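Structure ticket #2291
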Amino acid sequence: MSFSYRAAQLATPQFDTSNPHAVIALTGGSNRIAFAAEIAKDQNLPLFISGVNREAKPDEVAIAAGVDTAFFECCTTLGYKARTTYENGLEVAQWSTKSGYTRLIIVTSNYHMERALLELERAMPNVTLTGLAVASPAIKADAWWTDMRSAKRMGIEWVKWRIIKTRRLFQSG
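Resolution: structure written out below.
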């Protein structure tokens, strides 16, 4: 099965969460935070947002995402350290260890999910991760070849994903 096919399929959420402890949103896509907040609120779970701009205040993030600011105040933690997907893994691992969480729902864009899960698994090998992908309105993962922006994003993502897969081969041996 091809990388782009899997990315396109991930945009159809299957909601088997296995009693999660928290929801994690990786910043970058316009609708990731809103989707993650909706799940967290519906499931009565804490929300951790990794990779938040260091200048952003919680109420600004909530308003930009179209999320209830009261929910942010009570149930959301913002992570300001991560700048890359690798750093997302480190930041989420630190937060989940400190919080004692071992079952996490990960929300990111469909084209980003496979690589994100690899990086998070590397940082947290004993944590159960369930990915819930959000279709990016700007990237056509299912028809990337029809749009230059989508083709570029999918190409870059595929290269990064292959590098991580290759790195894992050498680290496991």
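Closing remark: The chain has a mean pLDDT of 85.
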